[in-house]
Amino acid sequence: MRIIVIFAFAIAGAACGSDGGGAPVCTGTGCTCADTACTCTTGLDCKTTCDGACSLTCSSSAKCEGDTADALLLTCNDSSQCKAAAGDGSHVTCTASSNCDLKLGANSNVTCDTSAMCKIQVGTASNITCSGSTTCNVKCDGDCKATCEAGAECAVTCGAAGTAATMCATGVFACGSC
């Protein structure tokens, strides 16, 4: 009996991936995965959990959530609502009238364009670009840079105290040195 219980836990752990970057688990209507790439199309409450680096693409007014301790490549299109908690080296693009709520690790890159609404929390050495008529609310947990092109609305704060970022040039904000 003890061997059967151990075997059952081993199978359950394998289904959710391993520290070696196992296959992601994707739940919810309209959510599919192939290898480490997941797609959520016109889905409600699509949730992708990865044990390793993975990608998630949300489109057609989907409601998506990505979760990994490693890097996440997230593309949030159309009028999708995207939420992500991911590790270092993540890359996120929010376009059209999407709504993104992101908590990312160090060395992450975020691009918000067209009329996206982005709430972004990033680790040190991260870069954020907001263009078009986007609204970006950025919180840097360490040194980071945010570029807000003409037409974009940006608020950039630094650290736990929420200190205002330094304006390095028109539309360029930094937490840390310029």
Helix content: under 10%
What is the β-strand count? Answer: 19
Mean pLDDT: 88
Strand order of the largest sheet: 2-3-5-7-9-11-13-15-19-18
What profile does the largest beta sheet have? Answer: 10 strands, mixed
Instruction: Specify the structural class.
Output: mainly beta
Number of helices: 1
Strand content: over 45%
Could you tell me how far the N terminus lies from the C terminus, measured between alpha carbons in angstroms? Answer: 63 Å
Enumerate the spans where pLDDT stays under 50 for 5 or more consecutive residues.
1-20
Cα radius of gyration in angstroms: 18 Å
Question: What is the subunit arrangement here?
Answer: single chain
What count of structural domains? 1
What gross morphology would you assign?
A: globular
Order of helices and strands: HEEEEEEEEEEEEEEEEEEE
Descriptive account of the structure:
With 178 residues, this protein is mainly β. Residues 1-20 have low confidence and may be disordered. It has one helix spanning 2-15, and strands at residues 25-27, 31-34, 37-41, 46-49, 54-59, 63-67, 72-76, 81-85, 91-94, 99-103, 109-112, 117-122, 126-130, 135-140, 144-148, 153-158, 163-164, 166-169, 172-175. Strand 16 and strand 17 (163-164) form a beta hairpin. The relative contact order is 0.09. The chain has a ten-stranded mixed beta sheet, with no helix packed on it. The chain has a nine-stranded mixed beta sheet with strand order 1-4-6-8-10-12-14-16-17, with no helix packed on it. Helices cover 8% and strands 49% of the residues.
